[in-house]
Amino acid sequence: MSLETDLFLDRRRLKRGIILWRVVAVVALVVAALGVWGFSLPGGRHVAVLNVKGIIGNEEKLAEAVDDLADDRQVAALMVVIDSPGGAVSGGEALHDAIARVATRKPVVAVMQGLAASAGYMIAVPAQRIFARNATITGSIGVIMEAPEFSGLLDKLGIDVQTLVSGPLKGQPSLSAPMTQAGQAALQSLLMDLYDQFVGMVAQGRHMSVADVRTLADGRAYTGRQALPLHLIDAIGGQDEARAWLARAKDVPAGLPTETVQPRGRGPSFFGLHLGGLANLLFSQRVTLDGAMALWQPAGL
After folding, report:
1. Between 130 and which of 48, 66, 110, 301 could a Cys-Cys bridge form, CB atoms 3.0 to 4.6 Å apart?
2. Pick the catalytic residue: 118, 140, 156, 209?
């Protein structure tokens, strides 16, 4: 073998060694930087954070992701962070039930931000401890169903709508005709059954009697400071206080990193409101029987 060949092979081996050590150095630098800045590589033990923002719509995909947390050994606890006026009863129920299942296996804490009312409050009640700010708006335990009716406008426009139904209650409510007394009674019965379910969730989650919850569940909202002596929340505070409680009461180290719960295959969002939920609220739940809402609506809005 010639001298030139030996030099070439030695140089190639040296270059490979330099590249290897450069890669090792870069990886070590990245890991050190993540540690200094408080980040961690995914897959380690962590506190899962479920963010519920804006109007609650169809939350099946998010509820499925929450369900997965119960069997995930890397999840030490679940923190539910809420800033929502409520929304669809079915969506609130799906999240409530998923969070309740996690709570049977792991510590769960809820943190209310500016607003956690109606269905937003519903999803907080399975938590073992609920934190809110003094100025948080919460409560508003109840259900609402609104049915727009345009028969007067249609008459002025000379439009006559002919509707065929299989029974006297099938067309209730309707955009083109006033609701009948029988229709009002039927829908009120449906609404009260949903209300009873909501009251039962609160009674179970907050360890209160149904009668005591009913005295608070007339639809009114409360500030966090008002909700505390009523036992609707447990303490005043935010995420820092929630992490401190997890460390103190549930032995969940305060230094564990957090990972946000991501819904399965959810569409894009616009100003915090997911487009799928928005379409569901505007169209599929507009005046139909699946359109009952647990939503805080201040007077005048």
Report:
1. 110
2. 118
| pLDDT, tens digit (0-9, with 9 covering 90-100), for 87-104 | 999 999 999 999 999 999
Indicate the domain borders of the chain: 46-295
φ/ψ (deg, to 5) at 242: -65, -45
What are the φ and ψ backbone dihedral angles of 269, each rounded to 5 degrees? -120, 160
Angle CA 207–64–121, to nearest 5 = 35
Are 138 and 221 a contacting pair, CB within 8 Å? Answer: yes
User: Given 170, 176, 269, 284, which residue is catalytic?
Assistant: 170
Identify the CATH assignment for 46-295 out of 1.20.1270.220, 3.40.50.2300, 3.40.718.10, 3.90.226.10: 3.90.226.10
Q: Is 90 noted as a catalytic residue in this protein?
A: no
Q: Using one digit for the tens of pLDDT, what is the confidence trace for 255-295?
A: 999 999 998 765 444 444 444 444 444 433 333 334 566 66
Average pLDDT over residues 220-224: 96
Q: Is 118 a catalytic residue?
A: yes
Confirm whether pTM is higher than 0.85: no
